[in-house]
Design a protein that fits this description.
By secondary structure, this protein is α/β, with parallel strands linked by helices. It contains ten helices and ten strands. InterPro entries: Bact_response_regulator, CheY-like_superfamily, Sig_transdc_resp-reg_receiver.
Length: 279
């Protein structure tokens, strides 16, 4: 059976993976999540190896893991998850009793989206998780939108603005790169999220834009999310886009509720991550 590589479909219930060596903790967090997030599916795992096996059976929307597991470090588990090409970028939250010390000693990376202080209690953790998997339908943020069809761009721009987003539309990768170049020279990123088609007029494609964002500018998936719109339903090609640095994919023709759900999800993850990193 082929594993799905993206989630966040509006018709699906959120799927949260809980990794903890304590059966009591797993059961308690499952009950709290089911109360806080109606319809949630909790994938409970005792150790890192089980979590890796369960991930093979289907994508998840969020992973929360204890820092210390029976068979590995929670940070090692996060690293292994990120190495999977066939998994869209999802938040990974590490639960620890010494969050402040760890925040001071390491920079949050794309491996770990956030740390959560265990002393705040599991009820607070469940509420924290809900903020990720059930974000508000209204949001603030600037989207750099790359689309060469002005008709499609107008409709999509109105769709995004209806949900409170600011949209900066360009018709080519070259124009998008010019904006990002100027912003970086000014000490800014230039957008909160990039939404791009794969096939565009001009010499450069959406894949080229993705490569430059991740490598030339050095923006990770948590720093500048990129959603790629594609009409290619070949799993290998989709996996290649994710491996190249796409946070998630949006199948064409675009369905509004699905696009908004995916976009707001990635925007919320990025905003949380940026807020957690000291300036």
């Amino acid at each position: 059976m082929e594993t799905r590589i993206t989630r966040h479909d509006s018709s699906e219930t959120p799927r949260v993976m809980v990794v903890d060596g304590s059966k009591v903790v797993r059961r308690m967090l499952q009950q709290l999540l089911q109360a806080q997030v109606p319809g949630v599916e909790v994938v409970a795992c005792e150790c890192g190896a089980e979590a890796e096996r369960r991930l093979e059976a289907g994508a998840v929307d969020l992973v929360t893991t204890a820092l210390r597991l029976p068979d590995m470090d929670g940070l090692e588990l996060a690293r292994r998850f990120r190495e999977r090409a066939a998994q869209a970028y999802v938040p990974i939250v590490v639960v620890s009793g010494d969050v402040q010390e760890r925040l001071q000693s390491r920079t949050l990376t794309d491996d770990v989206t956030d740390y959560f202080d265990k002393s705040l209690g599991f009820g607070a953790l469940a509420e924290f998780i809900r903020g990720y998997v059930r974000p508000d339908r209204q949001a603030s943020g600037e989207v750099l939108y790359v689309e060469d069809s002005r008709v499609v761009a107008l409709a999509t721009r109105r769709m995004l603005e209806k949900h409170g987003l600011t949209v900066q539309h360009v018709v080519s990768v070259e124009d998008a790169l010019a904006l990002l170049e100027t912003a970086q020279a000014q000490g800014r990123i230039g957008a909160d999220l990039v939404l791009t088609d794969v096939s565009l007029k001009g010499e450069l494609t959406g894949g080229d834009l993705l490569e430059r964002i991740r490598h030339r500018y050095g923006y990770g998936k948590g720093q500048l999310p990129v959603l790629v719109m594609t009409g290619d339903d070949n799993p290998k090609n989709q996996a290649a886009l994710l491996k190249a640095g796409a946070n998630d994919l949006v199948q064409k023709p675009i369905e509004e509720q699905l696009l908004i759900t995916k976009l707001l999800f990635q925007l919320r993850v990025s905003q949380r991550l940026r807020a957690a990193v000291p300036a």
